[in-house]
Amino acid sequence: xxxxxxxxxxxxxxxxxxxxxxxxxxxxxxxxxxxxxxxxxxxxxxxxxxxxxxxxxxxxxxxxxxxxxxxxxxxxxxxxxxxxxxxxxxxxxxxxxxxxxxxxxxxxxxxxxxxxxxxxxxxxxxxxxxxxxxxxxxxxxxxxxxxxxxxxxxxxxxxxxxxxxxxxxxxxxxxxxxxxxxxxxxxxxxxxxxxxxxxxxxxxxxxxxxxxxxxxxxxxxxxxxxxxxxxxxxxxxxxxxxxxxxxxxxxxxxxxxxxxxxxxxxxxxxxxxxxxxxxxxxxxxxxxxxxxxxxxxxxxxxxxxxxxxxxxxxxxxxxxxxxxxxxxxxxxxxxxxxxxxxxxxxxxxxxxxxxxxxxxxxxxxxxxxxxxxxxxxxxxxxxxxxxxxxxxxxxxxxxxxxxxxxxxxxxxxxxxxxxxxxxxxxxxxxxxxxxxxxxxxxxxxxxxxxxxx
Length: 453
Prior knowledge:
Blueprint: H1 8-13, H2 16-36, H3 42-51, H4 56-66, H5 69-81, H6 94-130, E1 135-140, E2 143-149, H7 150-174, E3 177-178, H8 192-202, E4 205-206, H9 217-243, E5 251-252, H10 272-293, H11 304-332, E6 335-336, H12 338-346, H13 354-363, H14 368-383, H15 389-395, H16 397-402, H17 405-411, H18 421-429
Parallel strand pairs: 3-4
Antiparallel strand pairs: 1-2, 5-6
Helix pairs in contact: 2-3, 2-6, 2-8, 4-5, 6-7, 6-11, 7-9, 7-18, 9-10, 9-11, 10-11, 13-14
């Protein structure tokens, strides 16, 4: 279902065609490395390279009988070659092929996710630049606190997603290992040099100590990183949902011509895309938990992780790809209402200067606890409609003894809270993530003799 909405190139990574193409490339590369050492005829390996192909339909047909996907794959590949096909899978076990291919797929997926993040941060950068000085009230506990700008809010999103980029890059490195070391990882029937040569061609490093599988702590780290990035998406989506509430209405997600918000109420413009992102974040976090459960396998391996990864591999990557692309689209066309932001900020009047008054009292020699009581007294009176906060502060006998009238007037400077806005935003925007070179093993993406047929 998720694949229906994700980008085609992400969906292609998790297709049967791509998976089998990677499996086939691994098998052929192993044969070539062994042949270079004189252990199998080079002429046979050239024939394998020239003729080998795998039809997913034929693999499925054989698997229906043998009930084993890798045996079905090897059988189908050997059929396409003829007698020389007997060298396929020489010295390997199923997990050599499956785990190494999975690492290739995860690396390719991580690369696309990094591209998504770069596009997203560019959309956020535009918001931060356009609204550097768009004043709004900051809220803590959803209650008015002190003034900020919408540009500062956007800059905080930007900084978070530069960290998201770093997490994805680290996650890609974490899973960039493979293993071609045989049934229990001891190279009983294949040389470590063969493994190293083949993995280098695939853009992977050898797992230092494998069992029958690559240890699953690596995969747990990968999917946990995806979950953290998904949670960052949810943070922005949740903010948009709050800002779009009728009582706030400081920003709202784009609403297209002809779009309808409710089947019953024609006036509705709901933040449905942001809500959708919040729901998908729950799924991605759930996949991370499943990956953590996969770490503890019996002895040198069992198969309990396999069924889990066949779901969470494609689903987590496809879901996050969709989330990042959708969020970039929302933010690129986000509707912002500066006038409403200013009006909402004005509702608290000069109460937002309460901390400034308190700090002035502290500087004047008043104990913080005592000054806090005086300022709170004036603030609560202003909230109850007994006058403006500035006038109540000036009229308070305790405050007046500590602060002269000119000092009090100077406290209520509307520019006080925005003096460092440009510095904050510039500091965040100074970081520009760059997508690294594509993984070496873009197998199946551009055809070639090892591509499936």
